[in-house]
Amino acid sequence: MSRRVVRQSKFRHVFGQAAKADQAYEDIRVSKVTWDSSFCAVNPKFLAIITEAGGGGAFIVLPLVKTGRVDKNYPLVTGHTAPVLDIDWCPHNDNVIASASDDTTIMVWQIPDYTPVRNITEPIITLEGHSKRVGILSWHPTARNVLLSAGGDNVIIIWNVGTGEVLLSLDDMHPDVIHSVCWNSNGSLLATTCKDKTLRIIDPRKGQVVANNFEEPVALQEMDTSNGVLLPFYDPDSSIVYLCGKGDSSIRYFEITDEPPFVHYLNTFSSKEPQRGMGFMPKRGLDVSKCEIARFYKLHERKCEPIIMTVPRKSDLFQDDLYPDTPGPEPALEADEWLSGQDAEPVLISLRDGYVPPKHRELRVTKRNILDVRPPSGPRRSQSASDASLSQHTLETLLQEIKALREQVQAQEQRITALENMLCELVDGTD
Question: Count of alpha carbons within 13 Å of 12, Cβ hemisphere only?
Answer without folding.
Answer: 5
